Amino acid sequence: MGAQQTDADVIIAGSGLTGLALAATLNAVRPSLRIVVTDPTPLPIAGADAAIGLRVSALTPGSIANFAAFGVWSSMPASHYQNYTDMRVWDAAMNCGDGIHFSAAKFGVPQLGCIADNAALRATLYQHCQAQSHVSFEPCAVTRVTSMPAHTAITLTDTSGQARELSAALLVGADGRNSAVRALAGIASVGWAHQQRALVAHLIPEHSHQMTALQRFLPDGPLALLPLPNDRVSLVLSTTPAEAHRLSEIDASDFDAHITQASDAVLGQLTLDSARASFALESRYAKDPIAPRCVVIGDAAHAVHPLAGQGANLGFSDVAVLARVVDEALSARQDIGDAPVLRRYRRARMVDNVSTLYGLDWVNRLFARDSGIIADSRRAGMRWFDRVGIVKHLAAGHAMRAASLPRGLRS
Hints:
Helix content: 25-40%
Strand content: 25-35%
Largest sheet: 9 strands, mixed
Radius of gyration: 22 Å
Distance between the termini: 29 Å
Number of helices: 11
């Protein structure tokens, strides 16, 4: 690293899933690395007896294996995640059985992934990081970034307005799609609204989900029923803002009837078993995820449509690659914030992140067309995709993987 003595080696702005995962991974790779995590928002502690939150993520086996490699996954409460072995995807004008079917058994793997409670995973990561002597937390926001030749100076401001400065070799922005670090570091971004909101809730189905994730494409957006423990399912419905508002306000019985019909009753009658919430959908990416002594990762670098559940996994792949780049730089006695080091990270992640973002946007737009030759071709294409084994294996392999960790942590 540079000759300049700094307060920390790495400052991570943001204590969401990606920021905490990076802190945990860097600590596992290099336990002596001085890591500071900053976030003005208090961290909720979700115990094993807490209810599963409305926000969930579909974790790939690759992401789970990375967490297991440094001891985090074994601490995740089993009551807050559900493995799934099958996935069915179909068009609104098709029957469920005529769509695409992914099966872990046919791919020779024990599972396709798991649906995990974001709050519980965040709490598990936080508790793991708290136990590490070289990871510290600052309840502050990053309000200024000044890059120097040998370090970066970060102004931290707490909720009372008190400010102080910390220096580090590297600043990582993991502070979400409205990233302050991205703006302060002068990293330009491009984004567009989808004119959709995602409505989320938990439901009790009449029939068992049988460890199967379901997704039906409707004209206004996809409807997903994701398996949860105790045979409940998580609803993620992308629809117009007006419809999301209406469905948030109608009586529970009317809501049940609507979602049951929208899902083609594949799980029988669905009964609301939680509050309802919705959030706006937007795609955004950083034109270049690096700046002098700064890099943005996760949603700060690429916020994607949730239709394939890849947002969290893209962030966790960012984490694995950045940890690997940092580890290799330290082994070579290089400055971890130096431009050539950060460019190696950019080369490794930029294509995957941007191509996934645009690919999901394209799929969402394609399925919004419900008539004419495009819709007919789409349905024929889904039937072809389901029949061609090699194509399904390639797609499943891509969806289930994650970037590999540094060599010393690979299982």
